[in-house]
Write a structure and sequence with these properties.
The protein contains 15 helices and nine strands. It is α/β, with parallel strands linked by helices. A nine-stranded mixed beta sheet has the order 6-5-4-3-2-1-7-8-9.
Length: 372
């Protein structure tokens, strides 16, 4: 049964890659609540449990995504584990043959909660982890015990989720705090059984600017002129490591664009938001991306026809073309995976190697890698 499901999913991916006329990926922010207040993130300021949908509405959204042709849904936030019914949410999507990834800070999760989502069918996880330094990670997360908490739960996820057939991801926001240690972070992720996604930090220029809910004004994390001179050497090393087989999920085109972004502030690829991918907020409103404006409820009876209409597709393209851009790999790197030969081949190669059983460090071995 799993083999049949995999063939169907890969068929939908190939169709999307060829025709580019239907979404293959969706981000569903089931909550804006979060249990920590990371310095570069602002979404926790907008958390409101009253705006969140219940399971019957989420089930309807899962049906819509399946009918639209979505293959991968990332359940994010805020922090998805702030919802006690996360396991039930995972089951709703898995029962409809959708790949499900949960995006989490993995900070305040018990082993019981991890077992619940694993039993519900969760196969993939993305965990935020930014530095090998206990002190700097505690500063970023504003929790002095953050390092130990996250590493312990990363190991639990690796042990309790399926050992083959899926990708565990360690997400690192690249900033002043960690630029020079990125190669070591790649090795650490691989030794934990994770692939590594590297995301350039995005910061608001004005402390009062809340147009983008997900970022804040945090100049201490921005690269200085001197540090930007180090970017080429670091990213050349990352690209070479990926070529040699390091467990880097980010595509080479995305790494190259990230390097350019640190020097120019611009990502060069046109965005496919609203076509290859889209976003849903906690209240069920569909947007073309996390920064897009609310367009239509995913619960509306005509949402499928609306999404497939040429009017929406033209409008979505116009909105994406007018956007100042972002660095988020859920949008940009998905585009590289489908619009560049190198990105597609690299991603396919990763997926073809998922039959190999992963191994991971013990907690004690991981602790030995920690830095002050």
């Amino acid at each position: 049964m799993q083999a049949v499901e995999s063939v169907r999913k890969y068929g939908r991916i190939l169709r999307a890659a060829t025709l580019r006329d239907q979404p293959v990926y969706a981000h569903f922010g089931i909550t804006h609540r979060c249990d920590i207040t990371c310095r570069m993130c602002g979404i926790w300021r907008f958390g409101n449990e009253d705006e969140e949908m219940g399971l019957p509405e989420i089930a309807r959204i899962a049906d819509v995504m399946r009918e639209l042709g979505v293959v991968q849904v990332s359940i994010g936030g805020g922090e998805p584990f702030t919802r006690r019914d996360l396991a039930e949410v995972v089951h709703l999507f898995r029962s409809r043959e959708l790949n499900v990834r949960v995006l989490t800070n993995a900070m305040n999760i018990t082993e019981e909660r991890i077992r619940e989502v694993a039993d519900a069918g969760l196969e993939a996880i993305s965990v935020s982890f930014d530095t090998l330094s206990r002190k700097r990670f505690g500063w970023i997360c504003m929790d002095p015990d953050a390092w130990e908490k996250v590493v312990r739960n990363m190991i639990l996820f690796a042990e309790l989720l399926p050992k083959t057939g899926n990708i565990l991801v360690m997400n690192t926001v690249v900033s002043k705090e960690n630029l020079l240690e990125l190669p070591d972070l790649v090795r650490f992720a691989g030794d934990l059984g994770y692939h590594h996604s590297l995301i350039p930090v995005e910061l608001a220029e004005d402390p009062h600017d809340r147009a983008n809910k997900f970022i804040t004004h945090q100049p201490k994390m921005a690269l200085s002129e001197e540090e930007r001179l180090e970017v080429d050497a670091v990213y050349d090393k990352l690209i070479q490591m990926k070529k040699e087989g390091a467990s880097i999920l980010s595509t080479t085109p995305y790494l190259m664009a990230s390097r350019a972004y640190f020097k120019t502030g611009v990502f060069p690829l046109p965005c496919d938001a609203g076509r290859l991918y889209f976003s849903v907020n906690p209240g069920g409103m569909m947007t073309i991306c996390h920064r897009g404006y609310d367009r239509k409820s995913m619960l509306d009876a005509d949402i499928i026809d609306y999404f497939r209409s040429s009017a929406f597709q033209d409008d979505a393209k116009a909105e994406a073309d007018a956007c100042s851009g972002c660095v988020r790999p859920c949008w940009i790197d998905t585009g590289f995976m489908f619009k560049t030969w190198m990105g597609f081949v690299e991603t396919s190669r990763i997926n073809l190697n998922l039959r190999r059983e992963r191994t991971t460090l013990s907690y004690e071995e991981a602790l030995a890698r920690a830095r002050p």
